[in-house]
Every structure is written in C-alpha cells, then in structure tokens.
C-alpha cells in the first residue's frame, strides 16, 4: 500500500498546505459523560483532561486578534468544562460564529439542564452526535438508555426553536458507522433520518453529516482485536478520491488541544502528532499568516478523510456515492 504522502505526491502535491485558518477547533477536554465505542480520543467520565481558564483566555485573544470567524468547540463533552459558558459568551461578544459538538445526553446531566436555553439565547450552532434513529443501535454504541436521553434532549432543543424548518437556530446531526464499514451516501441517509425521526418521535433537525470512523482510539483498538485493521486500512486506501483533497478540513482549520497545543486536526491530536517542527506549536505562539499557509503533517489515517466522498467535521467533502 502506498503511503498517504506518496499518494499525494503522485497527484502533484510535493506537500499539502493550508490555504487559510477560518476555523479554530477548540478541544475543551477529554472528559465525557459517555464512553462511546468509536471515540478516537477515548474520552469518558474518568478522563481528567480539561482546558484551564488561562488557556481559554489565549483562545479568546487569538480569535479576537486575528478575526477568526468560526470557533468549533469539541471534546469529550465540551459542555463539561467549567469555563464552557464563559468561553461561549466571550466569543459571541466578539461576533464569532460558535459551533458546539454535543453528544446530546450531556444536556440532561445535573447542573447542565439549563444549557439548551443558554445555547439558544446565544445562537450557538449545534452539531449533535446520533449514531442512528433506532434505539437498539444507539444503545449498543453508547450504553443502555442513551437513545431515550438523546430523544429527550432533541425534543427540548426543538421546543426552543432548534432544528425547525424556518429557524436560524441550527441543529445538525452527525452519523458514525457502527462498525468497520463506510457510512451510506449522506443525502439519502439524511432523508431517512429526517423521515423516521419525525414519524416515530416528532423530532426535527436541519442537516445530517456522515463521519467515517478513523482507525485510531477505541475504534482502532477494536480493529486490532478483531483482526480487521489491515483490511480496513486497505479499503480506505483503495477508496482514495483525489477530488476530496482540495476540501480537506485541515486546510482551513487549526485544532487546539486542552493543553493549548496546536494540531492539524483533532485526529492528530488524539495521536499526539503536533504540527511540523518549526511552526508555532502552542496557542500562545499562534501566528495567523504562518499557520494559514503551513505544510500539513501527513499520516496513514489521513486516508480516512479522502475515502469515497470524503469525511470531515462538516460531513462529506464531495458529492457522490461512497
């Protein structure tokens, strides 16, 4: 199997470079109220990693100084960081578009039940993980009772205006496959989710994004345990789609870890693969013009972003069947 770097070199990319930094993706910590089987960060209730207030102040400074238009808050469960609400308020005062990646169930946790109204009042865009529209599959990935909690959280968000057809309170769902296979084509799957969630549960949303499982973290461990790692990597490489390369999320995004270290993406962060040496390495050293044209570190799991229709934090990269 050709390395990912060799595959790009054959396409004429001596190196892959960023073209802008329009999104600061901020990982507020690896603590989560769930321990999902596909989690690339191996997040869970016992993880102590949480972004400190000092680092959060640096995130706010960088966003303001360089006029970065989008802040994408993730985790773990970003809502569990004790400074989450402070960060959201400061970013919104700057006019920044704030996205929050939520597992939904965290919105029902003690002392967090006020968050749906808090997020709605500030116009925060929500991207919510929901493995499927059927109870059995969701509970298998997330644990017993998870699906019902997701539905309750979605219902509360809908009552506040999130996800409604004419509402500007954006609510999107994120789908991950339940095993070592590609997600179905995003368009038809979105229509299936929309129809079934509305018919069965009276729940609505705006868009559904598909995200391919990366061969790292808990999912990577599963692939090794089941002797599927090599075949899965082979499938990713065989499905490489050159048309996805211009739209790779690492070309317009910088990932900030809970410690304040900089990465090309959240997947590199999970494997502790920092930016190429010689570049700014921490949020304190952030330099927009350098990072906006930086060479991107290439690893074998990058095949996961370029397989089929492509995979990113915004769903598929190009139209077409996977």
| Binned strand content | 5-15%
- Architecture, according to CATH? Alpha-Beta Barrel
Helix content: 25-40%
The CATH superfamily is known as: Aldolase class I
- The total of helices stands at 12
Extract low-pLDDT stretches. Answer: none
CATH C-level category: Alpha Beta
Averaging pLDDT over every residue, what do you get? 94
Number of domains: 1
- N-to-C SSE series? HEHEHEHEHHEHEHHEEHHH
Q: Any overview of this molecule?
A:
This protein is of the alpha/beta class and 322 residues long. It has a single domain, classed as Aldolase class I (TIM Barrel). Helices cover 33% and strands 11% of the residues. The chain is built from twelve helices and eight strands. The chain has an eight-stranded mixed β-sheet. Helix 3 links the parallel strand 2 and strand 3. The mean pLDDT is 94.
Topology (elements, then pairings):
Elements: H1 4-10, E1 23-27, H2 53-65, E2 70-74, H3 84-93, E3 97-102, H4 115-121, E4 125-129, H5 135-142, H6 146-159, E5 171-175, H7 186-201, E6 207-210, H8 217-225, H9 229-238, E7 253-256, E8 262-263, H10 266-270, H11 288-291, H12 303-306
Parallel strand pairs: 1-2, 1-7, 2-3, 3-4, 4-5, 5-6
Antiparallel strand pairs: 7-8
């Amino acid at each position: 199997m050709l390395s990912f770097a060799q595959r790009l070199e054959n396409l004429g990319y001596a190196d892959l470079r960023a073209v802008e930094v329009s999104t600061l993706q901020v990982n507020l910590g690896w603590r989560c109220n769930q321990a999902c089987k596909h989690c690339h960060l191996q997040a869970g209730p016992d993880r102590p990693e949480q972004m400190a207030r000092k680092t959060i102040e640096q995130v706010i400074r960088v966003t303001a100084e360089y006029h970065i238009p989008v802040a994408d808050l993730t985790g773990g469960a970003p809502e569990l960081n004790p400074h989450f609400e402070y960060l959201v308020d400061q970013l919104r005062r700057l006019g920044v578009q704030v996205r929050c990646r939520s597992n939904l169930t965290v919105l029902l946790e003690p002392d967090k039940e006020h968050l749906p109204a808090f997020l709605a009042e500030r116009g925060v865009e929500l991207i919510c993980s929901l493995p499927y529209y059927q109870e059995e599959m969701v509970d298998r990935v997330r644990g017993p009772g998870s699906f019902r909690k997701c539905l309750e959280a979605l219902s509360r968000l809908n009552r506040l205006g999130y996800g409604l057809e004419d509402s500007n309170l954006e609510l999107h769902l994120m789908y991950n496959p339940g095993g070592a296979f590609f997600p179905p084509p995003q368009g038809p799957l979105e229509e299936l989710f929309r129809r079934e969630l509305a018919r069965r549960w009276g729940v609505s949303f705006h868009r559904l994004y598909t995200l391919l499982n990366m061969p790292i973290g808990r999912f990577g461990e599963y692939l090794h345990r089941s002797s599927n790692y090599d075949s899965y990597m082979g499938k990713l490489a065989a499905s490489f789609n050159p048309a996805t390369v211009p739209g790779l999320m690492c070309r317009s995004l910088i990932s900030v870890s809970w410690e304040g270290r900089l990465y090309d993406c959240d997947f590199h962060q999970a494997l502790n693969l920092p930016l190429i040496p010689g570049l700014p390495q921490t949020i304190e050293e952030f330099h927009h013009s350098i990072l906006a044209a930086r060479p991107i570190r290439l690893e074998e799991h990058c095949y996961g972003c370029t397989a089929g229709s492509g995979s990113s934090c915004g769903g598929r990269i190009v139209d077409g069947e996977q």
